[in-house]
Amino acid sequence: SVPPFRSAGDVLEDNPVGKLKVFIYDLPRKYNKKMVTKDPRCLNHMFAAEIFMHRFLLSSAVRTLKPKEADWFYIPVYTTCDLTPAGLPLPFKSPRVMRSSIQYISNKWPFWNRTDGADHFFVVPHDFGACFHYQEEKAIERGILPLLRRATLVQTFGQENHVCLKEGSIIIPPFAPPQKMQAHLIPRDTPRSIFVYFRGLFYDTGNDPEGGYYARGARASLWENFKNNPLFDISTDHPATYYEDMQRAVFCLCPLGWAPWSPRLVEAVVFGCIPVIIADDIVLPFADAIPWEEIGVFVEEKDVPKLDTILTSMPIEDILRKQRLLANPSMKQAMLFPQPAQPRDAFHQILNGLARKLPHPEGVYLPPSEKHLNWTAGPVGDLKPW
Ligand SMILES: *[C@@H]1O[C@H](CO)[C@@H](O)[C@H](O)[C@H]1NC(C)=O
Ligand SMILES: *[C@@H]1O[C@H](CO)[C@@H](O)[C@H](O)[C@H]1NC(C)=O
Fold this sequence. Notes:
Layout: H1 8-13, E1 22-24, H2 33-38, H3 49-58, E2 63-64, E3 72-74, H4 94-108, H5 111-115, E4 120-123, H6 136-142, E5 152-155, E6 170-171, H7 178-183, E7 194-199, H8 218-226, E8 232-235, H9 242-247, E9 249-255, H10 264-270, E10 274-278, H11 292-295, E11 297-298, H12 307-312, H13 316-326, H14 329-333, H15 346-356
Parallel strand pairs: 1-2, 1-3, 3-4, 4-5, 5-6, 7-8, 7-9, 9-10, 10-11
């Protein structure tokens, strides 16, 4: 349910403590900690929020050790920590890992079956959340894992009217390393001498040799239209001064890639560079608390060729207003998962989101005979034990 309108700043200041109690299942280490020991690279990639959220909750004031008094149940399973040798978090095993963890808790405790998971939440930060595939068509074909159909999903993926985003999900920012970003801060009064900045791929010839799928062609169009435009500092080279350059830029492009979002969104906000969001129908992180329309610029994918006109014709007062809003420390804090956690950071915004979903609607608690989940639905490969 949508809370009555308050200004965005107010919502960011909310303190979740006292508004909800979370019970954390104690799972065998193979579902979480052991994966990190085996491959610590998963502490640094853009999906690492699942690990830090677990650590945060373990010592959080909202934690309860008494499941009978819990408002929410959390299953700490890491679905993006099983990396390929090259370090890519491809979620092929995730459906089996997830299913296995749900089987484990539903056999050992009575709480899952009581609601078929409707008062449980999961952090599923991969590209297409609980659809568990990195390619959009495949993700859509799979759909959300059937066992998660009643649970609340905390995920980075957000796009309107998409099978991989179910109603009631909480959209979070991708993980960007807070200490590393902090270490690259330059004086705040440094002039912003770069007009438009972007570093990243324009084509993904490895995975999309014919072109057109990757970024639905928007990044290719960016390159073809503006590679020689002096106002556009765009390139595939990733310089050592990447973070400093963003602090010297007025506009930072945040086009879709394979997914609608990328860590650039977080970086732009943290570095006070106006995010230019090119991803039709994107649902942005904590959109009920962060005034994205006011701090960013939204450009439709088909309008990429007009980007120079759109940005150069923006009134200077609008630019200054957006920069002032971006300078608000609460805005930056909400984008980050710092260690240790701090008030108003992304951890607290997730808890605020869960608290605002309380009380649970009627119909959450099922009569003993009523079942909503089909334990044998989904691709047969997913049903193999893990
Ligand atoms: C919960 O339901 C599952 C699937 O129907 C069943 O296997 C399990 O034993 C049940 N758990 C409890 C604690 O009754
Ligand atoms: C559960 O899913 C399987 C596989 O799709 C299907 O064959 C079966 O009929 C479903 N069961 C129910 C009760 O809907």
